[in-house]
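Let's practice the habit of predicting before peeking. Look at the sequence and jot down your guess about where helices and strands might fall. Then scroll down.
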Amino acid sequence: MACRPTPPGHTDGFTLIEMMIAITIGLGVIAGLIGVLAATAAHSRSNGRSSELMGAGRYALNVMKQDLRQAGFRGYTRAEPAAPAPMAIGDECLEPGAAAGSFVANLRQAIWGANDANPFSSNCIPATSYATLNDIVVLRSLAGNALAAGVALDADTVYFRSSYAGGQLFRGTQAACTEAPAASAAPPFNLAPCMAATPFTDLNDFALQIHVYYVSPFTVSASEVPRVPALFRVSLRSDGTMARELVASGIEHMQLQYGRLSSAGDTQYLDAGALSGSSFEPASTAWDDVHSVRLWLLARSESPEPGYSNTSSYAMGDRVYAVADGYRRRLFSTVVQLRN
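Done guessing? Here is the structure:
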């Protein structure tokens, strides 16, 4: 078939009005897609921050729960530990007036706390590394497993030799024992402290564990941007020094209360200040009666969320933290029964 010529005055295609309508519809569709994508991205960021908070908070809570349950473990004995020989500990946590070695040697005190204060600002927790209005808690125990028979002791590690009758702290570099029956025993029981024990299966060495938990206003350094708070602990290491360890980033506040039986026979939870005493008490104090701990941890996102406003108040022990910013937070709490 032959093509017919286009009649004069007639053209194929869109008119200007039709093109403008099509463009307007297209822009509307694109705007809608952008809105959906933005909402999806915001929701994803919010979910990510929530997961971040859950992960940090639960991990920190579990670490402290396990440590609290271990506090006061002395191996085979509940007898008062014998007085150890003087020990020089690097970066030991010492309150004003405390003698060197007294903090580490105080195994008989399983738990101790400071209420909204830092008593170790002159040594193991510098003032710049402590987030104000946070509690500090000290936990002492032995490692869960005894050293196997015949295992050589590390020179600088602090150990506790435990029998059913008693026990004593000592360093791995001890002199030979000249008293029976340890003098005739196999290593490491041929070294001081000389403890009579028959059979020797009732005598074992355990590594000493000390953890001092606190909250720092930053994770890496004071100059980080943004500053991310974190839960740290100062730990006694195998080289005979105390050093800080990161437990969980994003922990902004920590509060504790300590459970004791009242005269009426029910449990009364008190702040650390109500129990008084120091972290190096050589004799029995109110802290020996603590049988449970209430623990609160407030987790905070690493950075503020655009468009989000947080004006909540978080009740933790004797403190209420009111905020007004764009950070997401989540409060974690638990009650831990002390087993030892």
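How did you do? Residues 16-70 form the longest helix (55 residues).
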